[in-house]
Design a protein that fits this description.
This protein is mainly α and 113 residues long. It contains 5 helices and 2 strands. It starts with a helix and ends in a 5-residue tail after the last helix.
Length: 113
């Protein structure tokens, strides 16, 4: 149940960020739910692989390259979901940062188990 709540809150954050940021577009709430699911799957499957492959550059940049990896995850979500569009990597980077902030705020509202 908590997983569904987190996905719906992430979808809400995606819709809000798409309204705020001009470089990000999502067609509707159903598309935002699909985007939330795709981002969760990409973070679960692709992100660990990218982190391992880019470990040397991540160490050299003191972990800042992880921000670029998060932006790549957002761009991949835009590639896989036709109704979600991110124009550049800079918008994806800003979207990723703001999504993380919104998720931490919204997830703190959920009751603990």
């Amino acid at each position: 149940m908590k997983l569904i709540a987190k996905l719906l809150l992430t979808a809400l954050a995606v819709v809000v960020l798409a309204k705020i940021l001009p470089g990000v577009a999502v067609e509707g709430y159903g598309s935002a739910v699909i985007v939330a699911i795709v981002i969760a799957l990409l973070r679960l499957i692709v992100k660990p692989i990218l982190v391992v492959l880019t470990l040397p550059i991540t160490i050299v940049t003191f972990g800042l390259f992880l921000l670029i990896i998060n932006a790549i995850i957002i761009l991949l979500a835009g590639y896989f979901v036709d109704s979600f569009d991110v124009t550049t990597i800079w918008w994806a980077l800003l979207f990723s940062l703001l999504l993380s902030v919104f998720q931490s705020i919204l997830f703190s509202l959920l009751p603990e188990d």
